[in-house]
Write a structure and sequence with these properties.
This protein is mainly β. It has one domain (about 5-65). It has one helix and three strands; from the N terminus they run E-E-E-H. The chain has a three-stranded antiparallel beta sheet with strand order 1-2-3, covered by helices on one side. The model has no long low-confidence stretch (mean pLDDT about 80).
Length: about 60
């Protein structure tokens, strides 16, 4: 099982959380943004992304990649 985590694989994200909060964007303004966090079922890797605009849930899941 330890060797499996070293082999490249397509992540299967689960426990996906999508939230909309205010975030300070790189330009220095506070805007409504979309926060996405998820965990890979196979290797346990975690991902956390912030999009500095309000996107739909479908689009956020598609961009999770």
């Amino acid at each position: 099982m330890k060797l499996f985590s070293l082999i490249p694989h397509a992540h299967r994200w689960h426990r996906i959380r999508i939230a909309r909060k205010g975030a300070l964007c790189p330009a220095g303004r506070v805007r409504l943004s979309t926060h996405i966090s998820a965990c890979c079922q196979r290797c346990g890797a975690r991902i956390h992304k912030i999009y500095y605009r309000d996107v739909s849930d479908e689009q956020a899941r598609r961009w999770l990649g």
